[in-house]
Amino acid sequence: MKIVLQIVLWVIIGVLSYLLFNAIYGEVKFNEIKEKRYKMAIENLRDLRISQLAHKTVTGKYEADFDKLVRFIDTAEFTLTQRRDSIVRDEEQSKAFGVDVNKEITIIDTLGTKSVKDSLFGSSDRYKTMINVPIKDANAKFEMKTGTITKSNIEFPVFEIKVLKETLLFDQPRDFLTKEKQVVSVDGVNGDALTVGSLIKIDTNGNWPKSYGANDE
Fold first, then answer.
1. What is the 3-state secondary structure (H, E, C) of the chain?
2. What is the pLDDT of residue 44?
3. C-alpha dihedral sign at 31, 34, 40, 44
4. Across residues 67-75, what is the average pLDDT?
5. pLDDT at 16
6. Is the pLDDT of residue 196 over 50?
7. Between these two residues, 208 and 1, which has the higher pLDDT value?
8. Between 212 and which of 1, 159, 177, 208 could a Cys-Cys bridge form, CB atoms 3.0 to 4.6 Å apart?
């Protein structure tokens, strides 16, 4: 009986050790996959953000339609300008005081134009597919929305682009995914999605920590 109990005890210890190893190894593996996929998604989010900022620079607004955003990149141009200070005679003040009065003004000279595509992406055409979530078999797209926020009776354009963690980690263990969606940490991606921009405040930053690279403009 004693030998049987010892054998059963060793079996139990072995099973528990195996389960503990799998739990630790499983979480390590999950984190490795998560880090890799987050970095891939963030690269697309950065490309989408600079494209939206370029669109606003040229047109004064953001674009919710991805096909239109691509056409904009293909065809639009930035106006190149140069600012310089100059001093001129202030006619009104000179007339009022009876003496010459000068004032400083800023002159903006137009130097030419430059292709938006060349400025942002050079010879790469990755912008044509940046809306696609770059995870194998995910078969999903980033969600992109635009809107306006009114402050002091002035309307400001805003945008938000996001992808759910569930989409990025669709094939991972549910218990690890559930835990990841509840993260609240300065070193992690808080909330249930990776996002850039906001529809409720004027903000073009991303919600990822600096360990993934710059999250601002």
1. CHHHHHHHHHHHHHHHHHHHHHHHHHHHHHHHHHHHHHHHHHHHHHHHHHHHHHHHHHHCCCCCCHHHHHHHHHHCEEEEEEEEEEEEECHHHHHHHCCCCEEEEEEEEEEEEEEHHHHHHCCCCHHHCCCECCCCCCCCECEEEEEEEEECCEEEEEEEEEEEHHHHCCCCCHHHHHHHHCCCCCCCCCCCEEEEECCCCCCCCECCCHHHCCCCC
2. 97
3. negative
4. 97
5. 53
6. yes
7. 208
8. 208
What is the structure's pLDDT at 5? 59
Residue owning tokens 């109990």: 5
Instruction: Give the Cα separation of 36 and 3 in Å (integer).
Output: 49
CA 216 to chain centre: 8
pLDDT at 18 exceeding the cut of 50? no
CA angle 121, 128, 81 (to 5 degrees): 35
Question: pTM for this one?
Answer: 0.78
Contact 58, 51 (CB under 8 A): no
pLDDT tops 80 at residue 162? yes
Lowest mean pLDDT among 22-36, 121-135, 147-161: 22-36
Nearest CA-CA partner of 41 in 182, 174, 189: 189
Task: Please list the residues that pair with 194 across neighbouring strands.
Answer: 163
| Cβ-based neighbours of 33, under 8 Å, separated by 6 or more | 169, 172
Tokens encoding 45? 């989010």
160 touches 63 (CB < 8 A): no
